[in-house]
Amino acid sequence: MGASHPRSEQHQYHELMAKTGFSLEQIKNLHIRFQHLSGNEETIRRKHLSSIPALANNPIKKEIIEAFFDKRNQHENETGSFEEIGFEQFLMVMSHFRPPTLRTKDEEREALRKEKLHFLFNMHDTDSDGIITLEEYRKVVEELLSKSGNIGQEAARAIADAAMLEVASTNAPDMGPDDFYEGITFEHFEQMLQNLELESRMHIRFLDVKTTTMHCGKATM
After folding, report:
1. Could you give a single Gene Ontology term from the biological process aspect (predicted)?
2. Among residues 32, 46, 88, 176, which one has the fewest Cβ atoms lying within 10 Å of its Cβ?
3. Which helix (H) or strand (E) holds 43?
4. Is residue 128 within 8 Å of 79, Cβ to Cβ?
5. Nearest to 94 by CA among 26, 185, 10, 8
6. What is the pTM (predicted TM-score) of this model?
7. Could you give the CA distance from residue 79 to residue 100 in angstroms, rounded to a whole number?
8. d(Cα 26, Cα 14) in Å, to the nearest integer?
9. In a domain, 31, yes or no
């Protein structure tokens, strides 16, 4: 990074500040972490995130990694995924975990919450069709349970099936026994999590950068 930066790089940093809401020092700290992950290369791939020790036993490790390469998480209307991402794309994903500050206005706070909800929704909506199907929902629940080490695969699937049916009955209470439940829309997803406090609790620890307490200054590696 160096003690000084060319004018173009400084301009790029200020553009990233406007896009992400991170401060200049926070962006510099995250760039240090990006370089550490990539081995000082300009891009990172899935294998770089797969090597993070704190992710090794995470039951939704695959979903977390895929979220970084999901084009929907770039604050644009594209779908699909990248094979590799640069620092700006990495930073755009990290911005979903930025907590509000004391100066954040109510409308900005609500916008931040909706961004986080979209991020979580995208993690479950693996085929990018705008709906979390019951099979997608069941798969995530099953993975969370089966990899906890306290429950077997068959029992995990049975509990996941029950959770799947509960979601269907809650979101479509008038559904008949022969009706087909298409899946969870974003609106349903938002209702399901309406009482969950996401603004400060949704943050990333596995990168060794706690976005809830990320201070200006030297990054902790």
Report:
1. cell differentiation
2. 176
3. strand 43-44
4. yes
5. 26
6. 0.73
7. 27
8. 12
9. yes
Give residue 130's identity as a one-letter amino acid code.
G
List Cβ neighbours of 213 (8 Å cut-off, separation of 6 or more): none
Q: Given this model, what pLDDT does residue 2 score?
A: 42
Q: Is residue 69 part of a domain?
A: yes
Element spanning 94, H or E: helix 87-94
Q: Domain of 43?
A: 18-99+203-220
For 88, the token pair is 């700006």
CATH at residue 90 = 1.10.238.10
Q: Is 39 left (phi over 0), alpha (psi -120 to 50) or beta?
A: left
Domain assignment present for residue 29? The answer is yes
Cβ atoms of 122 and 72 closer than 8 Å: yes
Rama region for 110: left / alpha / beta (φ>0; ψ in -120 to 50; rest): alpha
Q: Compute how many other C-beta atoms are within 10 angstroms of the C-beta atom of residue 75.
A: 13
d(CA 40, CA 46): 15
Query: What pLDDT is attached to residue 218?
Result: 37
Q: What is the pLDDT of residues 39-79, one digit of tens each?
A: 999 999 999 999 888 888 777 888 889 999 999 998 777 88
Q: Are 29 and 90 in contact (CB under 8 A)?
A: no
Specify the pLDDT at position 203. Answer: 60
The total number of residues written for the chain in this structure? 221
Please give the tally of structural domains in the chain. Answer: 1
| Percentage helix, strand, coil for the chain under 3-state DSSP, each rounded to 5 | 55, 5, 45
